[in-house]
């Protein structure tokens, strides 16, 4: 297990408890996390409290969904010996710091977060007029700052959240110092290249659109989903030339296929030398070659889910020690230390 003494920069990131992950989650974050765990001191958490911001009315699947997320992390190659994996609600210091931050965070800062209005408009079937939904960026800030993260890996759309975290850290440090020293460093966004990964209907891959390919989908399901995937709309007949640059299947090839296959697809599609069925078959081959090893690794933990849960509990224990030390500093800086003798001895 890496430690702060190793002088590695610390990275903090999390995923909501939404159940089994899909290829979009893998390409957008998880694949990058696996590479980062050998380079940084990584803390990755299952954000079960964040899941409540939109799914508060039914919590029956939260624990099961948290375990499914962890199983996919382990399947993708996250190693508990190389990173700390934990569950947010098992480290209650997150909630304490969130409460303290909520006391100093202006409402205007939260109302201007781009995803706030966007999600309220897009998730119209749920009542998101709640304190928890408005304030979830404050909880995000607590998640990051309680581990004094140096970097937060994000796509460009999440940069405003990191900037808000920096503003909250700055405001806390302005009000409260610990022996003349600021408690919180200001984390930096670590921009991750966002590959264009379409779902089976051509839109962004998302569970809410029902267009996903899950990391757990068996080979026959992957091949069937690829068969129904939309292609270049201008290619109506088999004899029509196509353009892989505007085809969702072409996008899959660019991410998952080897160079030789990409060249075959490019030449064959533009000349009408290959049909869409053949092209989709090659894309399915590439996906299956990536997913099969993941599913083999996952099976070990599926057969013994207690083993996976133990990894979360051990990680939560490690995270609690780091979070607890930070909260000691926070309380001292605010003059709210739990130790009476510190002020009055």
Q: What does this 3D model show about the protein?
A:
There is one protein chain. The chain is mainly alpha-helical. The protein folds into 2 domains: 4-197 and 305-344, Rossmann fold (3-Layer(aba) Sandwich); 217-298, Orthogonal Bundle (Tyrosyl-Transfer RNA Synthetase), CATH 1.10.240.10. Helix content is 54%, strand content 8%. It is built from 15 helices and 5 strands. The protein has helices at residues 23-36, 48-55, 62-76, 93-104, 107-111, 114-122, 131-134, 136-145, 159-175, 219-227, 248-256, 259-270, 276-302, 305-334, 340-344, and strands spanning 10-16, 41-47, 84-87, 151-154, 188-191. The strands form 2 sheets. The chain has a 3-stranded parallel beta sheet with strand order 1-2-3. It starts with 9 loop residues before the first strand and ends with a helix.
- Total strands: the figure is 5
Distance between the termini: 39 Å
Low-confidence stretches: none
Indicate the percent of residues in helices. Answer: 40-55%
Structural class: mainly alpha
Strand order, biggest sheet? 1-2-3
Number of domains: 2
Count the DSSP helices. 15
Run of helices and strands? EHEHHEHHHHHEHEHHHHHH
Assign the CATH superfamily of the largest domain.
HUPs
Q: What's the overall geometry?
A: elongated
What is the CATH architecture term of the largest domain? 3-Layer(aba) Sandwich
**Rg over C-alpha atoms, rounded to the nearest angstrom:** 23 Å
Q: Mean pLDDT, as a whole number?
A: 91
């Amino acid at each position: 297990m890496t430690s702060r003494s190793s002088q590695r920069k610390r990275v903090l990131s999390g995923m909501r408890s939404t159940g089994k992950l899909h290829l979009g989650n893998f390409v957008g974050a998880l694949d990058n996390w696996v590479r980062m765990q050998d380079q940084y001191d990584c803390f990755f958490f299952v954000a079960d409290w964040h899941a409540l911001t939109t799914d508060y009315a039914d919590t029956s699947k939260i624990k099961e969904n948290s375990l499914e997320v962890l199983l996919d992390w382990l399947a993708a190659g996250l190693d508990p010996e190389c990173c700390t994996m934990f569950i947010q609600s098992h480290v209650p210091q997150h909630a304490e710091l969130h409460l303290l931050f909520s006391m100093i965070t202006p409402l205007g800062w939260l109302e201007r977060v781009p995803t706030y209005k966007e999600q309220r408009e897009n998730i119209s079937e749920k009542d998101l007029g709640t304190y928890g939904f408005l304030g979830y960026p404050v909880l995000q800030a607590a998640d990051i700052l309680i581990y004094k993260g140096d970097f937060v890996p994000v796509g460009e759309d999440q940069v405003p959240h990191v900037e808000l975290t920096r503003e909250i850290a700055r405001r806390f440090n302005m009000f409260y110092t610990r022996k003349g020293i600021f408690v919180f460093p200001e984390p930096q966004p670590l921009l991750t290249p966002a590959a264009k990964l379409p779902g089976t209907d051509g839109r962004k891959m998302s569970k809410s659109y029902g267009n996903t390919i899950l990391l757990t989908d068996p080979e026959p399901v992957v091949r069937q989903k690829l068969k129904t995937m939309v292609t270049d709309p201008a290619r109506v007949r088999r004899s029509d030339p196509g353009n892989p640059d505007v085809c969702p299947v072409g996008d899959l090839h660019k991410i998952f296929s080897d160079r030789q296959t990409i060249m075959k697809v490019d030449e064959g599609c533009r000349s009408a030398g290959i049909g869409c069925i053949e092209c989709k078959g090659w894309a399915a081959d590439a996906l299956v070659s990536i997913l099969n090893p993941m599913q083999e690794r996952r099976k070990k933990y599926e057969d013994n889910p207690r083993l996976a849960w133990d990894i979360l509990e051990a990680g939560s224990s490690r995270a609690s020690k780091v979070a607890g030390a930070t909260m000691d500093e926070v309380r001292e800086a605010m003059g709210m230390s739990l130790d009476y003798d510190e002020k009055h001895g």
